[in-house]
Specification:
Layout (H helix, E strand, L loop, with lengths): L2 E8 L6 E3 L3 E4 L3 E2 L11 E5 H11 L12 E4 L10 E4 L2 E8 L5 H5 L3 H4 L8 E7 L1 E3 L5 E3 L4
Amino acid sequence: MAQLDEIWLKRAHTGPMDVAERATLVVDVGLEGNTEQGGKRQVTIISRERWAAAEAALSAEVEPSLRRANLLVSGVDLEDSRGKVLCIGNCRIAIRGETRPCELMDKQHMGLRRALDEHWGGGAYGEVIAGGEIAPGDPVAWLDQS
Protein backbone atom coordinates (compact mmCIF):
# COMPACT_ATOMS: atom_id res chain seq x y z
CA MET A 1 0.00 0.00 0.00
CA ALA A 2 1.25 3.47 -0.87
CA GLN A 3 1.45 5.66 2.18
CA LEU A 4 3.01 8.63 3.94
CA ASP A 5 5.91 7.31 6.05
CA GLU A 6 7.52 10.39 7.64
CA ILE A 7 6.95 14.12 8.11
CA TRP A 8 9.74 16.63 8.79
CA LEU A 9 9.52 20.37 9.46
CA LYS A 10 12.36 22.87 9.09
CA ARG A 11 12.81 25.36 11.95
CA ALA A 12 15.17 27.54 9.89
CA HIS A 13 16.48 27.60 6.32
CA THR A 14 19.63 25.64 7.19
CA GLY A 15 18.38 24.38 10.55
CA PRO A 16 17.62 20.83 11.67
CA MET A 17 14.72 18.76 10.41
CA ASP A 18 12.21 17.97 13.15
CA VAL A 19 10.12 14.80 12.98
CA ALA A 20 6.40 15.50 13.24
CA GLU A 21 3.73 13.00 14.27
CA ARG A 22 1.20 14.98 12.26
CA ALA A 23 1.12 18.21 10.32
CA THR A 24 -1.29 20.56 8.61
CA LEU A 25 -1.07 21.36 4.91
CA VAL A 26 -2.34 24.88 4.14
CA VAL A 27 -3.46 25.91 0.64
CA ASP A 28 -1.03 28.34 -1.04
CA VAL A 29 1.28 28.18 2.01
CA GLY A 30 2.62 24.66 2.57
CA LEU A 31 3.25 22.92 5.87
CA GLU A 32 2.13 24.89 8.91
CA GLY A 33 5.15 25.61 11.11
CA ASN A 34 7.71 25.00 8.34
CA THR A 35 10.13 27.85 7.72
CA GLU A 36 9.83 27.68 3.92
CA GLN A 37 6.32 28.62 2.83
CA GLY A 38 4.59 29.96 -0.27
CA GLY A 39 5.74 29.88 -3.88
CA LYS A 40 5.95 26.74 -5.98
CA ARG A 41 8.12 24.83 -3.43
CA GLN A 42 5.63 24.74 -0.57
CA VAL A 43 6.24 21.03 0.11
CA THR A 44 9.14 18.74 -0.81
CA ILE A 45 8.66 14.99 -1.11
CA ILE A 46 11.03 12.02 -1.43
CA SER A 47 10.34 8.39 -2.23
CA ARG A 48 11.35 5.59 0.14
CA GLU A 49 12.13 3.35 -2.84
CA ARG A 50 14.45 5.91 -4.47
CA TRP A 51 16.10 6.51 -1.09
CA ALA A 52 16.71 2.76 -0.71
CA ALA A 53 18.30 2.70 -4.19
CA ALA A 54 20.63 5.54 -3.15
CA GLU A 55 21.59 3.66 0.02
CA ALA A 56 22.34 0.57 -2.08
CA ALA A 57 24.54 2.65 -4.41
CA LEU A 58 26.40 4.01 -1.37
CA SER A 59 26.54 0.63 0.39
CA ALA A 60 25.46 2.51 3.51
CA GLU A 61 22.38 3.28 5.56
CA VAL A 62 21.69 7.02 5.49
CA GLU A 63 18.97 8.76 7.51
CA PRO A 64 16.34 10.03 5.00
CA SER A 65 15.90 13.31 6.91
CA LEU A 66 19.37 14.29 5.64
CA ARG A 67 17.71 14.95 2.26
CA ARG A 68 15.93 17.85 3.98
CA ALA A 69 12.57 17.06 2.39
CA ASN A 70 9.27 17.47 4.22
CA LEU A 71 7.60 14.19 3.37
CA LEU A 72 8.76 10.60 2.79
CA VAL A 73 6.29 8.46 0.85
CA SER A 74 6.38 4.82 -0.17
CA GLY A 75 4.63 2.99 -2.99
CA VAL A 76 4.48 5.91 -5.46
CA ASP A 77 7.05 6.80 -8.09
CA LEU A 78 7.78 10.53 -8.22
CA GLU A 79 9.79 10.37 -11.48
CA ASP A 80 8.37 12.58 -14.24
CA SER A 81 5.46 13.64 -12.02
CA ARG A 82 5.48 17.34 -12.97
CA GLY A 83 1.85 18.38 -13.56
CA LYS A 84 0.36 15.48 -11.58
CA VAL A 85 -1.59 15.79 -8.34
CA LEU A 86 -0.50 13.72 -5.34
CA CYS A 87 -3.22 12.83 -2.84
CA ILE A 88 -2.21 12.32 0.79
CA GLY A 89 -5.32 11.42 2.75
CA ASN A 90 -7.81 14.16 1.83
CA CYS A 91 -5.07 16.64 0.91
CA ARG A 92 -3.78 17.42 -2.59
CA ILE A 93 -0.35 18.60 -3.75
CA ALA A 94 0.17 19.78 -7.34
CA ILE A 95 3.65 18.62 -8.31
CA ARG A 96 5.57 21.50 -9.94
CA GLY A 97 8.97 19.91 -10.50
CA GLU A 98 11.96 17.84 -9.52
CA THR A 99 14.00 18.67 -6.44
CA ARG A 100 17.58 18.39 -7.67
CA PRO A 101 20.18 17.20 -5.16
CA CYS A 102 22.77 19.87 -4.36
CA GLU A 103 26.28 19.96 -2.90
CA LEU A 104 24.79 19.90 0.60
CA MET A 105 24.00 16.21 0.04
CA ASP A 106 27.72 15.38 -0.14
CA LYS A 107 28.27 17.30 3.10
CA GLN A 108 25.65 15.04 4.68
CA HIS A 109 27.17 11.83 3.24
CA MET A 110 29.90 11.71 0.57
CA GLY A 111 28.47 10.48 -2.74
CA LEU A 112 24.82 11.10 -1.78
CA ARG A 113 24.36 13.82 -4.41
CA ARG A 114 25.37 11.48 -7.24
CA ALA A 115 23.34 8.60 -5.76
CA LEU A 116 20.20 10.79 -5.85
CA ASP A 117 20.89 12.40 -9.23
CA GLU A 118 18.88 10.10 -11.51
CA HIS A 119 15.20 9.18 -11.73
CA TRP A 120 14.09 12.09 -9.55
CA GLY A 121 15.95 10.54 -6.59
CA GLY A 122 16.12 13.96 -4.95
CA GLY A 123 12.34 14.04 -4.94
CA ALA A 124 9.67 16.46 -6.09
CA TYR A 125 8.22 19.76 -4.93
CA GLY A 126 4.74 21.15 -5.16
CA GLU A 127 1.97 23.46 -4.09
CA VAL A 128 -0.84 22.59 -1.68
CA ILE A 129 -4.17 22.81 -3.52
CA ALA A 130 -6.34 21.06 -0.89
CA GLY A 131 -5.27 21.33 2.71
CA GLY A 132 -5.88 19.48 5.93
CA GLU A 133 -4.14 17.34 8.49
CA ILE A 134 -1.76 14.55 7.50
CA ALA A 135 -0.03 11.84 9.51
CA PRO A 136 2.25 8.87 8.83
CA GLY A 137 0.18 5.94 7.60
CA ASP A 138 -2.14 8.13 5.50
CA PRO A 139 -2.79 6.67 2.05
CA VAL A 140 -0.93 8.23 -0.88
CA ALA A 141 -2.00 8.01 -4.55
CA TRP A 142 -1.93 9.93 -7.79
CA LEU A 143 -5.19 11.72 -8.58
CA ASP A 144 -6.79 10.06 -11.58
CA GLN A 145 -7.02 12.93 -14.05
CA SER A 146 -8.48 10.98 -16.97
